[in-house]
Design a protein that fits this description.
alpha+beta; Immunoglobulin-like; 2 helices; 10 strands; about 35% strand; elongated
Length: about 190
């Protein structure tokens, strides 16, 4: 009998300790849309842009920060490997304030370097949206980002070639114009 009373007392203490955490978790009403983003056939050297929408359904303003996160072990999609470099992903802005019952859009840009070794890859990373809070309980929501790269590297416009051909052609054209103009004047 004494054992049951002690067990009930310990259970009550744990319930009283954990109850405020459950109450705080119920009070936070935020969301991020979409939950998953898939970018297919992105050629290395190109960029892709998309928007995340952060919803604040609370009666108070909330600040949110955004960052790239590594998926927990075993949580990745089948066939996807870890994203090689988080600096290839940028947020604009990377911190935002959302008014009560409002939403904010954040532009996300993914830029893969123009290198052959990044072709034909399937990667996964998570985009973390953290609600800054003075409470003990911090809330972080994730959007899954899946990126597959094309088998070819994106070709870029060769400015050096254009300047190398265009500048001499322009100089020859101007020189020829002045030469023939001067020749016509003396004849």
């Amino acid at each position: 009998m004494l054992r049951h009373v002690a067990l009930a007392g310990i259970s009550a203490v744990f319930l009283v300790m954990l109850l405020p955490f459950f109450a705080l978790a119920d009070d936070i009403n935020i969301g991020v849309v979409p939950a998953e983003i898939r970018i297919d056939n992105l050629s290395p050297g190109e960029t892709a842009k998309f928007e995340l929408t952060i919803h604040n359904n609370d009666a108070i303003s909330r600040s949110f920060t955004l960052a790239v996160s590594v998926p927990p072990e075993g949580q990745e999609k089948t066939g996807a490997t870890q994203f090689p470099d988080g600096s290839w992903i940028s947020f604009s802005p990377d911190r935002t304030e959302v008014v009560p019952y409002g939403e904010a859009n954040v532009t996300v840009m993914v830029a893969i370097p123009r290198e052959q070794k990044w072709t034909s890859q399937d990667w996964e990373t998570w985009l973390g949206v953290t609600a800054e809070s003075t409470d003990m309980l911090g809330v972080r929501l994730y959007t899954r980002l899946l990126v597959s790269t094309n088998s070819t590297v994106a070709q870029r416009f060769n400015v050096r070639l254009l300047v190398g051909i265009g500048l001499p052609a322009l100089l020859l054209g101007c020189g020829g114009f002045y030469y023939f103009r001067r020749r016509a004047r003396f004849n």
